[in-house]
Batch of 4 targets.
Target 1
Amino acid sequence: MLSGSSDMLEQHSRIEHLVDELKQHSQALEEANRELRRVALYRSMFLARMTHELRTPLTSILGFAEILLDHENLSEAQWRFCGKIQSSGLQLQASLNHLVDLSRLEAGQSELFLHEFSVREAMKESSATVARPAAKRGVTVNFELPDLPTVVSDEGKLRQVFYNFLMHAISRSPEGPK
């Protein structure tokens, strides 16, 4: 009978040891989760700060490039270089907008405004929005969509997707005659 009690004591001791190990691992996981949340918060703060810090000079660069392209008598090479500055700036601006959206999502600050609207009209208006940058590059934007039913979505976010897609396509298209 003593050997049975000894086995039970040994088994009980092993269980206690396993419970203690489980508690230690649980505490370590809780600490790791706290650290991950802290790092995520700092990363979000960094993203928000950097996008703001980069947007201000980028806005100036894009503004000056547009002024040069619109109002200065530039040689063809200078005009091409300014066009490249503007195109690269627009790509950077789109990337910064994505980072802002990402930091808002992570911070739980992004909201959807759902309502019914025409995809065709949203696409038509997005095309009109990019007409000027497209014309500056000598690129023509044409689209043909069949009659589509209306959808329920966030129209502003969908328009942003259309705009980003079109601007990317414009920036990647070969320059045409001006």
Target 2
Amino acid sequence: MRHMFRWKVVRWILLGILLILIAIQFVPVDRVNPPVETEVPAPAPVRVILRRACYDCHSNETVWPWYSQVAPFSWLLAHDVREGRAELNFSTWNQYSTQRQVKKLQESWKEVSDGDMPPWYYLPVHRHARLSAEDRTALRTWALRTAPEPGDKSDK
């Protein structure tokens, strides 16, 4: 008798979870790619690396995979893309001042060299985004090619 009661409770709980999973699919998620205003001025080999490892979150050219249509993954992806674009958007590069561009590149290189970019949780599903030693060298050379003006504290 007690075993039957537990099974009924488990069935109701599983049914409730299933209904919740179905219901959350109707919560709208913004998966918009605004127009590209400009292309970041990078050498072709660097641009290939950026497109492969960075553009999904740091440009208006996000490739939305099939699971971006399934909640709660869709919420997480949309959130990460919003945050990534807010921090650095290669598609709106022309909106940054020259000093800000230099700072963004240097900050980006620091994130890459510290192993924070691409994020660890992005890599298992996006193996193509892994950065080789050669990729890191190319990014470092490009990102650090311009030093900020002495005493420049601009943050526009």
Target 3
Amino acid sequence: MKRISELVLYKDHHLIALNKPGGLPVQEDKTGDPSAHRMAMAYAHRDLYVVHRLDRRVSGVVVFAKTKPAAATLSKQWEENKVKKIYLGIIPTADIPASGQLRHYLTYDNKLNITYTSDEPKVGADEASLHYQVLQQLDNFMLLRIDLITGRKHQIRAQLSAMGAPIRGDIKYGSKRTNPDGTIDLHAYKLQFRHPSKEEYMKLIAPLPEEGLWQHVDKEIIKGI
């Protein structure tokens, strides 16, 4: 894994953003493994507040706040779906439209740590939607741009699986095999949100992982995203 200083995308007096590697949890969990939160606090030499989360197996931008006011302002933007979130994902080649919007109703099972999808409203289910676009063909796989409209637990993983196109390496949601390092090919590529104290919008971009099929992604294709 890279040194923490190599993972820092942005820092100021209010927040710090990392390019989290896949396999690293955002927060401490029952495994006791190192976390992005703990690493960021060691780097910043201060307590930090968790603003949002990424699945452990997912890589990409994650933001921590340095103050309570910043944490409250940022968390509210996430809760109200005011943050623009763009992911890149690799799926098996599938007979799907070149672009489209997916809308499902999701139910998360806490005991099994899995999200179930339904095409119709159900008691206790949350509506979820995303927009996807096929960007590139990669041998037997395809690169997708995913604009996350809502932000539900395992949303992208569950919705793409329901479409018959699970994320590469994601055996929980239908991939035929795991990746050697236990990650899945889903990357939180870009976040746009209002800075917690300045009247300006920020754009944070996380460079792609350097392993696996990510090496074959055409950087020119994603440059203008």
Target 4
Amino acid sequence: MSSSLFGLMLVSEGAAGAPTSPFEVNFGLFFWTWVTFLGLFLLLWKFVWPQMLAATEAREAKIKQQLAEAERLNAEAKASVAEQTKLLADARAQASTILAETKAAAEKERSMATEKTRAEAEELLARARREIGAEKDRASAELRREAVDLALAAAGKLIGQRLESAEDQKIVTDYLATLGTGK
């Protein structure tokens, strides 16, 4: 019986403390809900909130540090790219200068070789002309001697005596010389 009485009391207390309509407010429940909420809020405010705030600030500082490091690395990378671009432009300029110098040196060398070949050809031609002139002079002198000898032989046959003296040769040579200048 006592258990049925206890069960009945609970049912009657529950029925007495519970609102009968959805628009009815139970001030005891309302009061203790607010006290529990404010107590929990104060505990969180005192102990949890500072730790959350410190963790958030530490994370924010770490993110700012990482952003600053990223900006520094980005600036270094841009400076490195600019330096590499400058070095590449300098290298290209140097290469074009070296190429131009090489072309100029090759052109100069070719010009010098051409000039040397031309000079050698002119010298060879001049030497050949001198040799031809000397050979022509020798041939003319030989021809004159033979002409003098023939003229003396022919004159000797006409006269009937042999003409071989130096004076006779001089007369014929002088005559042939006047014939050579008369041309």
